[in-house]
């Protein structure tokens, strides 16, 4: 009998107490791709940066998941070793010096980060054997 208007389609037009999805359908809670992969690193952000970086015309769905997992593993590895270096120096906070000590004392990380300079990191303590004082025979 009355004029029928089309139902509101945009979320801002919807009444506050009504969930979208037809006849009282429950709205499914969205799950992040990081949570699906069991990661802490953001898969969506990695995907965005891969696309914006123009590394390839197209980026597959699995690539950012794999890359986020690799980045998370490397970060955890460096933090673990830097935390150990901080504990060895009786400190409760990791500072750049601890990161440098951790990376340079680990053979594989040192090779991976050979061209990297850590700001305020310093160098490994090392004195060349030629510069050390000679151990001469006892003179009486």
- Show unreliable segments: none
- What structural category arises from helix and sheet content? mainly alpha
- In angstroms, what separates the terminal alpha carbons? 124 Å
**DSSP strand content:** under 5%
Can you lay out the helices and strands and say which pair or pack?
Blueprint: H1 33-37, H2 43-52, H3 62-88, H4 96-105, H5 107-112
Helix pairs in contact: 2-3, 3-4
Give a written overview of the molecule.
With 140 residues, the protein is mostly helical. The chain has helices at residues 33-37, 43-52, 62-88, 96-105, 107-112. Helix 2 (43-52) packs across helix 3 and helix 3 (62-88) crosses helix 4 (96-105). The longest helix has 27 residues, at 62-88. It is elongated, with a radius of gyration of 28 Å. The mean pLDDT is 90.
């Amino acid at each position: 009998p009355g004029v029928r208007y089309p139902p509101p389609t945009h979320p801002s037009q919807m009444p506050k107490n009504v969930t979208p999805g037809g006849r009282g359908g429950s709205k499914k809670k969205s799950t992040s791709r990081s949570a699906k992969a069991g990661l802490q690193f953001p898969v969506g952000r990695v995907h965005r940066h891969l696309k914006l970086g123009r590394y390839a015309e197209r980026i597959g769905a699995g690539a950012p998941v794999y890359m986020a997992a690799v980045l998370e593993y490397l970060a955890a590895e460096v933090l673990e070793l830097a935390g150990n270096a901080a504990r060895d120096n009786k400190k409760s906070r990791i500072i750049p010096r601890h990161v440098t000590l951790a990376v340079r004392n680990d053979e594989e990380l040192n090779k991976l980060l050979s061209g990297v300079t850590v700001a305020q990191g310093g160098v490994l303590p090392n004195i060349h054997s030629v510069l050390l004082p000679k151990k001469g025979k006892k003179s009486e």
